[in-house]
Design goal:
By secondary structure, the chain is of the alpha+beta class. It folds into two domains: about 5-200, PmbA/TldD superfamily (PmbA/TldD fold, 2-Layer Sandwich); about 210-445, no CATH class. Helices cover about 25% and strands about 40% of the residues. It is built from nine helices and 19 strands. Strands 3-2-1-4-5-6 form a six-stranded antiparallel β-sheet. The protein has a six-stranded mixed β-sheet with strand order 10-9-8-11-18-17, covered by helices on one side.
Length: about 450
């Protein structure tokens, strides 16, 4: 894997090549990854991957035009060719009113360092998972995954920043008869993850999921575990709280800053420095990611900006740019839902529910109507019926169709069980369990 010194040397070489080719300004981004992936079943490992990748991107400007080119060849010759291609693109591009490249920035870096592959520790964790499942008569499947990413950005205006972070994950699916259970843990390293505990949670779900019954579609009170909550909130990052969506009118926040949009018990921030989150602490333009309060006690307070939207609206960037140039605009990258006062999380929220459903996970969620953030998707790997505060049996999977905006107006409880969670299309959020009144389910299934 590239280390910061070698990445800096490549970036300096690319900047020099861009200047020699005629660029007036240039920016270089180096991203290198080490990845360890182990897929396994209850019988044996099925895939073992160790790989290193690197990408160098060069963005140049000349006479108000800009162009970008990338290479997977992290050599002086490779980055020089990328600089030349970027300049050729710039000369063919239309001129525009481009925001300036930022000068030197101060950053509080995460600095986790590279991923340390430990085959014996990985084998021990996978063995503990499969044995925990086998002991309860369950079949197992899952992944043990870690990615370490070095990101470095330099430009001709004197900005030079880098960060190094690791994202580790243990995900376990357990099966017995027709019952299926799932659990996952995500953190900044495998030492922080308890693989046997993840397996135990998946096994408990699988055993409790046997003999599921169908329930009619309709509106049910629900308790959503953190993984299910993440499926809903990640779409607010991509469709709601970026300034570009507000400017083009596709966000439900457009024209509503300062107004109530969620229930009074909902406070949502974007915070790259939260102790549970992961990822870079600077954005695609090399600016520090700031903590932004998006919703405070239900009231929409702000959206995130890059330099493009900040220039249009006469404000400052909040450090939420995607790699430029980008048509998608800025996006939150580290959403955090403030925990509630319900100690004990999911169990306590269930005890406060007279009749409804407990949902472990949503799967294949997609947007139906973006301006209302109406989503649809399926429950998966553990859906249960609750009566008088107790789980009374498993439920066959159901399709939900619900507006996130409307659902978050009907939150009746938020747990204190904060976790780092993710969903199918990637990204991560720091969330607790949540109880919502009258959540909409549009159809059932036969499984």
């Amino acid at each position: 894997m590239l280390d910061p010194a070698r990445a800096r040397s490549l970036a300096e070489h690319a900047l020099s090549a861009a200047r020699r080719a005629g660029a007036q300004q240039a920016e270089v981004t180096v991203e290198a990854q080490d990845e360890e992936l182990n897929r396994f079943t209850h019988e044996h490992p099925v895939q073992n991957v160790l790989r290193s990748t690197a990408c160098v991107s060069v963005r140049v400007r000349v006479d108000g035009r800009q162009g970008k080119a990338s290479t997977g060849s992290p050599t002086p010759e490779g980055v020089a060719r990328a600089a030349e291609r970027a300049l050729a693109v710039a000369r063919l591009s239309p001129a525009g009113d481009l925001p300036p490249l930022p000068g030197p920035q101060a950053h509080a870096l995460r600095g986790a360092g590279p991923l340390r592959a430990d085959p014996e520790a990985t084998a021990g964790a996978v063995g503990a998972v499969t044995e925990a499942c086998r002991a309860q008569g369950c079949r197992a499947a899952g992944i043990h995954h870690g990615v370490s990413t070095l990101r470095l950005l330099m430009n001709t205006q004197g900005n030079a920043v880098h960060d190094w972070d690791t994202v580790a994950q243990v995900s376990v699916s357990a099966f017995r008869d027709e019952g299926a259970g799932w659990a996952c843990a995500i953190g900044d390293g495998h030492r922080a993850l308890d693989a046997p505990s993840v397996a135990a949670r998946a096994v408990d779900k699988a055993l409790a999921s046997r003999a599921p019954r169908a329930v009619p579609p309709g509106r049910y009170d629900v308790v959503l575990e953190p993984a299910a909550v993440s499926s809903l909130l990640l779409f607010t990052a991509s469709h709601a709280f970026g300034a570009q969506q507000v400017l083009d009118g596709s966000s439900f926040v457009a024209g509503r800053l300062g107004e109530p949009v969620f229930g009074e018990n909902v406070t949502l921030t974007d915070d790259a420095h939260h102790p549970l989150t992961v990822g870079p602490v600077f954005d695609g333009e090399g600016l520090p990611r700031q903590r932004v309060t998006l919703v405070e006690r239900g009231v929409a307070r702000s959206v995130v900006h890059d330099q493009v939207t900040a220039k249009r609206l006469g404000c400052a960037s909040t450090g939420h740019s995607l790699p430029q140039p980008s048509r998608d605009g800025p996006q939150p990258g580290n959403l955090c839902l403030q925990p509630g006062a319900t100690a004990g999380g999911t169990a306590e929220l269930i005890r406060g529910m007279k009749r409804g459903l407990l949902v472990t996970q949503f799967h294949y969620s997609n947007v139906v109507e973006p301006t209302k953030l109406t989503l649809t998707g399926m429950t998966r790997n553990g859906t249960f019926f609750v009566e008088n505060g107790e789980i009374v049996g498993a439920v066959k999977n159901m399709r939900y169709t619900e507006s996130v905006v409307e659902a978050l107006k009907r939150v009746t409880g938020i747990g204190s069980d904060l976790r780092l969670a993710s969903a199918l299309f990637g990204g991560w959020v720091v969330v607790p369990s949540v109880r919502i009144e009258g959540f909409g389910f549009s159809s059932g299934t036969e499984f």
